[in-house]
C-alpha cells in the first residue's frame, strides 16, 4: 500500500478506507485536513466515527491520540455534533 501506515494512528484497515476515499499519501492527508478527509471517508463508510476522526487528526499532526490536547478533542467532538445533526 502507501506510506500512510507510517503515520501515527493509521492501521491497515484505516489506510484501506483512506485509499478508497482517494487519499493515497501522507501529503494528501495533510493537505486536505482531518475533517475533510473524515467526511470523504464517511461518504463511503457510514461506520466512520469519532475515534476515526481523532486518528486522522493525530496522523495529520504526527501525534498519537493519547498525546492529543484535550481542547483539540473538544473541538473535534463539536465538529462531530454539528455533522451528526
What class, by secondary structure content? mainly alpha
Number of DSSP-assigned strands: 0
Could you name the ranges where pLDDT drops below 50 across 5 or more consecutive residues?
none
What's the order of the H and E elements? HHHHH
Look up the CATH topology. Answer: DNA polymerase, domain 1
Cα-to-Cα separation, first versus last residue: 35 Å
Tell me the CATH superfamily: 5' to 3' exonuclease, C-terminal subdomain
Question: Count the helices. How many?
Answer: 5
- What is the share of helical residues? 55-70%
Report the average pLDDT across residues: 94
How much of the sequence lies in strands comes to under 5%
**CATH C-level class:** Mainly Alpha
Tally of separate domains: 1
Write down the overall geometry: globular
- Characterize the main sheet: none
In the CATH hierarchy, what is the architecture at level 2?
Orthogonal Bundle
Taking Cα atoms only, what radius of gyration do you get, to the nearest Å? 12 Å
